[in-house]
Amino acid sequence: MTEVLEKINPPVRAVLEICALVSLGLVGFQFGPGLIGSLVFAALLPVAAAVAWAMFCSPKATMPLSLAGRITVEAVIFGCAAVGLALTGRLILGGLFAIVALLSGAFKHYIDG
């Protein structure tokens, strides 16, 4: 079973990362002030999350963190995406996203040590 999860988890994590970026864009658009503000927030929130991920959490991170640091950054990004989905009226989707992200992250960090 562990071997199957080891093969399934990386693509699941990739999909979660993309979903988090889309979610943050949706949140930025919905809660931005006015049309221009919404468009700016819709662009900046996912870009900020992607930059943070690339700098601290990706396999080729430019400033790799300790395990605790990576878990914190991942929790903030995925948590903001899940809460953002809930705040935009997608409560069930936000909850499902949070559960899958939590399980996938726990498995990843368990395997990575």
Automatic annotation (TrEMBL):
UniProt name for this protein: DUF2568 domain-containing protein
The organism of origin for this protein: Fodinicola feengrottensis
The keyword Membrane is assigned to this record: yes
Source species, domain of life: Bacteria
Keyword flag Membrane: yes
Membrane spanning residue stretches: 12-29, 35-55
Keywords from the UniProt entry: Membrane, Transmembrane, Transmembrane helix
